[in-house]
Amino acid sequence: MARRVFLHVGAPKTGSTYVQNVLWNNADALKRAGILLPGASWAQDQAMTDLREVEWRDPRASWTWERLAKETRKWHGDAIVSNEALGGATPAQAARGVAAFAPAEVHVIVTGRDLWRTFPSMWQQSVRARNKWSFTEFLTAVEQGRFETFWEMHTPNRMLKRWGDLVPAEQRHLITIPTPGAPRDTLWHRFAGITGIPDGVCDLRDPTANPSLGAAEIEVLRRVNAALGDRFPHRTPYQRVVQRHLVNAVLKNGRNDVRFGVGLDRAGWVAEMAEQQIKELRDYPCQIAGDLDELRPSNMTATSSPDDLDDSRILETAIETIVGMLEHADALTRQPDADGIRALSLLRDQATRRLRRTLKRVSSTRR
Fold it and tell me: What InterPro entries does the database record attribute to this sequence (predicted)?
């Protein structure tokens, strides 16, 4: 059984993609250092959907939470499970998640980011997950208490109470996200310090960053979501088609030059919520990597909203997106048929095996 298991449960949009990319890009080196990443990135994601019993779990998924725990039980060093959507588990699901790794020493890791930066990032993430509400509609729903999911999945105090309460205080960890301008590897070193990953084991270069979209690009995606109707439902069909061919292939490579954020009319409310969050965390016994002051918004300046963009700018971006889609389609047509190549390779291997068996039988007969 693993000696220690570190469950990194979120929150989304707190550098989790960067941390996970470093982990999986260096999985072999980590294993040599005695640290297992059970399964694969996609396997841990499938296990998360099993644990949370979400209705959008891919029916073809083969990895369950128990299967992930079973692989971990075969290991005799430390293990890391990282999926930012785990933070949305109910108390009962979180309890099952921790219990599955007994008798290993389970550590819970939660990451927290200041609310001023979290709100626009989370709304964008929701649109990239097929939601179609405007930024104003989203903020209003959170402010009026009609979207508790935000607080449950994106604030460390809520996640620590559900997950952290299941382990001793010395095994609860909060990582605060550094303020803008800090070295990018600061987050990694905080994470590595908790999990015991020695310096120099991992190559910190990340070739697969997850950049944010600009106001015009995310607004185009939101309007596409609204126009889709019942086509390409969340999660797998949408990811396979819209996320892959529109977001990743085209929108991420657009201009993305208009940044957006919460308006100053909500600055007081955001500051008040931040102070409440910091107070709750000061009173909660856990190990902090970073500083709770980093959860206090530090640069609350005037910003635009995607809702305020002129239709002419949206149209311009939509046309640029169509051109990008055409270029993407052209590139795909010029690529070899990957499925065809795999099929031919499989047929070749099967034919080779048959030929070897035939030759072996002929050879034995002649003897």
Answer: P-loop_NTPase (IPR027417)
Other beta carbons within 10 Å of 64: 16
Tokens for 297, please give them: 């918004």
| Structure confidence at residue 21 (pLDDT) | 95
Which whole-number Å values give the CA distances from 73 to 44, 67, 107, 143, 212, in the listed order?
Answer: 15, 10, 15, 44, 37
| Residue whose tokens read 């100053």 | 264
Q: How far is CA 178 from CA 113, 161, 187, in A?
A: 8, 23, 7
Residues 345 and 318 reside in one and the same domain: no
Q: Flag whether pLDDT at 287 surpasses 90.
A: yes
Provide the whole-model pTM: 0.88
What is the Cα–Cα distance from 128 to 122, expressed in whole angstroms? 10
Cis peptide before 103 (omega within 30 of 0): yes
With bands split at pLDDT 50, 70 and 90, how would you rate the model's confidence at 351? Answer: low
Give the Cβ contact number of residue 105 at 10 Å.
Answer: 16
Span 67-87, mean pLDDT?
97
Q: Domain of 320?
A: 215-258+305-334
**Nearest alpha carbon to residue 179 among 274, 266, 86, 268:** 274
Which DSSP letter does residue 214 get? P
| pLDDT reported for residue 36 | 98
Instruction: Tally Cβ neighbours within 10 Å of residue 77.
Output: 14
Q: Are residues 8 and 133 in the same domain?
A: yes
- Average pLDDT of the segment spanning 225-232: 97
What is the average pLDDT value for the chain, to the nearest integer?
Answer: 93
User: Residue 360 is which amino acid?
Assistant: K
151 touches 10 (CB < 8 A):
no
